[in-house]
């Protein structure tokens, strides 16, 4: 039982430290600079013909980016 309590306290300590880091830096936790790009994969779904759900999501992203570019001041 003492091992469980010690592990729980250590976990809470890490959460506390990460939250303090977020509050101080105002920056979210990020992943590593590796990932799929290191393996030469451009996207998570590396298929030639994406599914309909992915196509709709890509169209929404493209429309949002076009709208942002239209309303950009600089």
UniProtKB/TrEMBL annotation:
Q: Which InterPro entries match?
A: NqrM
Pfam families for this protein: NqrM
Top-rank taxon: Bacteria
Task: Tell me the PANTHER family matching this sequence.
Answer: (NA+)-NQR MATURATION NQRM (PTHR40691), EXPORTED PROTEIN (PTHR40691:SF1)
Q: What is the name attached to this protein's record?
A: Na(+)-translocating NADH-quinone reductase subunit E
Q: Which organism is it from?
A: Shewanella frigidimarina
């Amino acid at each position: 039982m003492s091992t469980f309590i010690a592990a729980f306290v250590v976990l809470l300590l890490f959460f506390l430290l990460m939250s303090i880091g977020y509050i101080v830096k105002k920056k979210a936790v990020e992943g590593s600079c590796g990932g799929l790009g290191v393996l030469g994969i451009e996207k998570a779904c590396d298929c030639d013909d994406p599914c309909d759900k992915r196509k709709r999501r890509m169209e929404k992203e493209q429309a949002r980016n076009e709208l942002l570019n239209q309303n950009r001041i600089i």
